[in-house]
Amino acid sequence: MNAIVALCHFCELHGPRTLFCTEVLHSPLPQGASGDISGQNEQAEEEEGGIQMSSRIRSHSPAEGASADSSSPGPKKSDMCEGCRSLAGGHPGYVSHDKETSIKYVSHQHPNHPQLFSIVRQACVRSLSCEVCPGREGPIFFGDEQHGFVFSHTFFIKDSLARGFQRWYSIITIMMDRIYLINSWPFLLGKIRGIIDELQGKALKVFEAEQYGCPQRAQRMNTAFTPFLHQRNGNAARSLTSLTNDENLWACLHTSFAWLLKACGSRLTEKLLEGAPTEDTLVQMEKLADLKEESEGWDGSEEEGKPSSQPDVVEGQELSKCSPETSLMPDCNSWNIAHRRLSVFRSLRHMRQVLGASAFRMLAWHVLMGNQVIWKARDMDLVQSAFDVLRTMLPVGCVRIIPYSDQYEEAYRCNFLGLSPHVQIPSHILSSEFAVLVEVRAATRSGLYPTLFDDEQSLNKYEFVVTSGSPVAADRVGPTILNKIEAALTNQNLSVDVVDQCLVCLKEEWMNKVKVLFKFTKVDSRPKEDTQKLLSILGAAEEDNVKLLKFWMTGLSKTYKSHLMSTVRSPTSSESRN
């Protein structure tokens, strides 16, 4: 944690003073570096500022104590009494090394850097003058962006020779990150309170012993009145080590402050928050839960000798005992694992190159509108690969796949249907504007795509014929998302991975519009005029966009729908609406 912890004292002669401070120094060089780097350290110090500023470690050496004192930004020795001083002149200070993070915790009376000294000095003055809580003892928070933010805890230490038999101290924590410091308030309050209790406990024992030997209260009452400052002797300003009778006080405080900085820095870590689960994630979780319940039901029916309901047959094998509704789940398709050997279509861009721009646009339009997409082919791997690619354009909740069947299935059961070549499709489906058929036929000549797919022999033997009762005109505007998808696919500067991420973003954008429309129409029951205004605001007033939103509305998760309905039914919600 990039912060400074300091112990401050209000001296009756010199006012607020900093007694002892501990700061964090980050290693200027990578771990394991060696050599004489003192000159580089000094140059780095002068260029760097703020709480993370690195101090001159060399100035803590006893041999250079005299030169360090002459250039120190702290007060002169003549302006310091015994109560204002912690470490003796020439004391090297205390340094703790954290080998895990290559961080040093350095303690001394004042920060060596002038900017840090000014920040600590101002915080010290404010903590012992104007920024105090009622009773003058307790925690308080203050600060600004320029001088840093401060957590201050003021307290009293018993002293038999002081006015009022007590002296005023504070422990302050200074850092530039306001949010981090506020979030650390409970931790800092508990740990600093523990340090204060220990100091007060030691001082109380010394105070009681001195009062027992020579009671100061009775002596002062029997003394003739004179100004208090004039009657103080030379021992009136006493050091904290004298008040606590602890010669190792500063070493203990260094250990406590260093641990406080390390523990407070490690207790809060930054995490990447991805927000609430997407609709695709919620739908997948719901379908997995339904699949688990159905599998338990199948296990029970098998134990009772009952046949499973409506098995899908693929080449004489059951489709992993999955109903048509659950067969769309990628984790459910054991057929997918058992029969698929390779991905024939690598991506949407690959499919667009194979089918051609106009045929692909027609196919993609029907996919986005929710119309039934039928593939007739002898190669099951090719059909499954095509569905895997096409389904990426839709939310998970809008995808219903029957990968391969020996009979036609109605559109309410699936919007992706794979058929063997000999299956007869009803004539009203072939002429319907709500269906598109892709026939995979044997190529009339070899090497149909010699320039595009030299390394793919599987596609050289096929040709693809896309037909529909409602062909998409070339000059038709189409849904906005289709135009954006085509723009991404034709942009050769975008890799396949980038196009995939673009698809994810586009789906999330339009699913958010679907959520707004669902809330507006289904939950709030707004009139059509207001709905048209909303569609205009969403940029989806065109006919194709409206159809797309209505179809995608079927892909909303049950969790989201139930949450909205429960919110509307709650008393607080109804009161706010009224």
TrEMBL record:
Sequence segments annotated as region (Disordered): 32-82, 293-323
Keywords (A to Z) from UniProt: Cell projection, Coiled coil, Cytoplasm, Cytoskeleton, GTPase activation, Lysosome, Membrane, Nucleus, Phosphoprotein
Signal peptide: none
Subcellular location, record wording: Cell projection, Cilium; Cytoplasm, Cytoskeleton, Microtubule organizing center, Centrosome; Cytoplasm, Cytoskeleton, Spindle; Cytoplasm, Cytosol
GO molecular function: GTPase activator activity
GO BP terms, alphabetized: intracellular signal transduction; negative regulation of signal transduction; negative regulation of transcription by RNA polymerase II; positive regulation of TORC1 signaling; positive regulation of transforming growth factor beta receptor signaling pathway
GO cellular component, one term: spindle
Record keyword Nucleus present: yes
Pfam families in the record: Folliculin, Folliculin_C
Superkingdom of this protein's organism: Eukaryota
Main subcellular localisation: other
InterPro entries the UniProt entry points to: FLCN/SMCR8_DENN, FLCN_DENN_C_sf, Folliculin, Folliculin/SMCR8_longin, Folliculin_DENN
Domain UDENN FLCN/SMCR8-type residue range list: 85-557
PANTHER family named among the record's database cross-references: FOLLICULIN, FOLLICULIN FAMILY MEMBER
Record family assignment: Belongs to the folliculin family.
Record's subunit section: Interacts (via C-terminus) with FNIP1 or FNIP2 (via C-terminus). Component of the lysosomal folliculin complex (LFC), composed of FLCN, FNIP1 (or FNIP2), RagA/RRAGA or RagB/RRAGB GDP-bound, RagC/RRAGC or RagD/RRAGD GTP-bound, and Ragulator. Interaction with FNIP1 or FNIP2 mediates indirect interaction with the PRKAA1, PRKAB1 and PRKAG1 subunits of 5'-AMP-activated protein kinase (AMPK). Interacts with HSP90AA1 in the presence of FNIP1. Interacts with HSP70, STUB1, CDC37, AHSA1, CCT2, STIP1, PTGES3 and PPP5C.
This protein's name: Folliculin
Source species of the chain: Corythaixoides concolor
